[in-house]
Design a protein that fits this description.
40% of the residues lie in helices and 22% in strands. The protein is built from six helices and seven strands; from the N terminus they run βαβαβαβααβαββ.
Length: 189
Amino acid sequence: MQSSLTPVACRSALVIGAARSGKSRYALALAEATAPDRLYLATAEAGDAEMAERIARHRRERGEGEGWRTREEPLALAAALRAEARPGRVVLVDCLTLWLSNLMLADRDLEAQIFELTAILSDLGGPVVLVANEVGAGVAPATPLGRAFRDWQGRLNQAAAAACGAVVAVAAGLPTQLKPAPQPDIRLR
């Protein structure tokens, strides 16, 4: 994937976008350009046949075994990152949105989990690319659980963006660099 984004020297990046925006494809390309040793840290669980097929398709698409290894971790993301991040290896976490959903369904302390994850990002032994959905731009969810999820996803994305050295938003397959953002040249007349 060609990109006109400004290269940023950093240890962590957050890639956000809507469903089917191209964010995972962009994150994969970013990880592949970073290191030959790559770990795909998957947060999805195959709860039904359709999801199992999605997971299998994603493994085929990224070329499992061709520089990629997969670890599935639906809940203990910070611990998995501490164990897996190391020099010479990039870890791609796909995705924070499913991780958040898993935490909510497991009735975990969301604030504590988000804090734990974002607090370790600067101290990891190797680079990490995080993928998350941007869910707050659509119609307000009809249920209290849906609204709570949307609100927590917004908090998670803000915390991850603050902790990462770079943030890229992807829409229609096109990346836009959000962080570091260019400084506006605002002048008094």
